[in-house]
Please model this.
Amino acid sequence: MQLQWHKREGGEWHLLDALDVNRIDAYGVFVVWRPGNGRASVVLYVGRGALRHEIESCRRGALLGNASGLRITWARVDPHDVDAVAAYLYQQLRPLWGEVPRPVPALPVNLPLTA
Model:
């Protein structure tokens, strides 16, 4: 499945702490990471569900809410496929935190950090 990962108008990734979640009205998956300086980026969190609510909850949480400079992207996914897509992202990106996806067969998608 080919997902459309969201970026800012200039082609840069969104900043988690500057994102206006009120403009996001979709269901899908999202990825939060810390960009690397001369080394690989570290994926911190993979989330899924009603994006506005889930991203806002992530920002208010103790783990990611106080960190600056974190990047985020998201993609719309049909609610029927969201658990399978999240399972694939979790397997491939190995986030430091997040809910372990439900035991469903993973549905391969294009990865956001290669978009």
The helical segments are 51-60, 82-93. Strands lie at 14-15, 27-34, 42-50, 71-76. The radius of gyration is 13 Å.
